[in-house]
Design goal:
The protein is an alpha+beta fold. Strand 14 and strand 15 form a beta hairpin. The longest helix is centred in the last third of the chain and has 49 residues. The radius of gyration is 34 Å and the shape is elongated. The mean pLDDT is about 75.
Length: about 375
């Protein structure tokens, strides 16, 4: 059946339109497929270039102890992180391990790139192994198992770090504060404190004579400031001290009370994570020295250090030439100063304790 020219033209236009539409659709599908392939390739490349690493979940200050709850793991570009960033939390934990003698336990990788623990004792390296039955650590020495007692030494931040900072071993240091059996939390309210002192700061406690002689009594102690009525106490701090440090402080406080014009005060570390603890220089009196060396609560490690320190000629000269003469010259006045200041300290402690307990109880209805 014949078709008229108008119908034929319409049909050809329709077929041409369909062909063009199919061609355009094909091009669009091809472009979308190419984009999808490129995206997949890019994601694969990014995945290959990515690593997982631990970052901080919060801001930390220099000298603050780093605990695992402060860390979270994130995926980051390998090219944007240092090579010593890690996603293995055991690397951080192992970095902080020591045995009771203070020997570091460290990680090394074998030929298959598996991490293993090692310790160096008596100039020899031993692999630290874990007994499956007891989960105790040991080394093989002279063909026998020698079990290790491990101390977990806290890690502290060397510098101030903001949230999302990548954690590397270069940013961490081992804490100077070892929690030994003779450590106790002590409260003091007679020290002259820095204006901006806050919980978490590290301090030296020093004793200054009217002549300008200045001694370090205890060094690099982390401070906790009690909160009374929702406000930080302005004159009281808590610090953890060992038995010998407690007696050092007691001796220095008594002598500060006896000597008019003397001062016992605290100074802050500016970068506690980077700075080493200062060496105490305060020479205690003879009776306290004898007590320190005979005190059964003091660890053997401390006893040896005390014996060496107080057999030092310079320490004896400091006391005999500077501190003892000042106390002797003040005579009865020194005893009066002592009684007055001890009473004031006791009263301040009682008042601070009452305010603290009242703040815990909350407002009375």
């Amino acid at each position: 059946m014949a078709t008229n020219p108008m119908q034929r033209k319409a049909r050809n236009s329709f077929l041409l339109g369909m062909l063009v539409m199919l061609l355009i659709s094909g091009i669009i599908i091809a472009l979308l497929f190419m984009q999808l392939m490129n995206k997949t390739k890019k994601e694969k490349e990014e995945l290959q270039a990515s690593v997982k690493a631990y970052v901080l979940k919060q801001d930390v200050s220099s000298g603050q102890v780093i605990t695992t709850d402060m860390l979270t793991i994130q995926t980051v570009n390998r090219n944007l992180v240092p090579s010593n960033a890690t996603s293995d939390i055991s690397m951080i934990e192992n970095y902080a391990l020591q045995d009771k003698e203070g020997n570091d336990i460290y990680t090394k990788y074998d030929n298959s790139n598996n991490p293993k623990l090692y310790i160096r004792k008596d100039n020899r390296e031993y692999e630290v192994q874990k007994e499956e039955e007891t989960e105790n650590y040991y080394i093989e020495r002279n063909n026998e198992k020698e079990y290790l007692v491990l101390n977990s030494v806290p890690l502290v931040a060397k510098v101030n770090m903001k949230r999302n900072t990548l954690i590397t071993t270069e940013l961490l240091a081992k804490s100077d504060n070892f929690v030994q059996d003779d450590v106790r939390k002590q409260e003091y309210n007679m020290l002259v404190l820095p204006m901006d002192l806050a919980t978490g700061d590290y301090i030296d406690i020093r004793f200054m004579l009217p002549s300008g002689q200045d001694y370090i009594v205890v060094s690099k102690k982390e401070v906790e400031v009690p909160v009374v009525g929702g406000i930080d106490s302005d004159d009281t701090i808590w610090v953890n001290l060992s038995e010998d440090e407690i007696l050092h402080m007691s001796c220095a406080i008594i002598e500060a009370y006896q000597i008019k014009g003397s001062k016992i005060y605290a100074t802050k570390y500016t970068e506690a994570g980077m700075q080493e603890a200062a060496i105490p220089t305060y020479p205690v009196n003879e009776s306290t020295s004898r007590l320190l060396q005979s005190d059964p609560n003091i660890l053997e490690r401390a006893m040896n250090a005390i014996a060496n320190r107080y057999n030092d000629t310079d320490a004896s000269n400091l006391r005999n030439n500077y501190i003892n003469p000042v106390i002797s010259n003040q005579g009865d006045q020194a005893q009066g100063n002592l009684e007055t200041n001890m009473q004031e300290s006791t009263t301040n402690s009682k008042n601070a304790r009452k305010e603290y307990l009242d703040s815990l109880a909350g407002p009375v209805e």
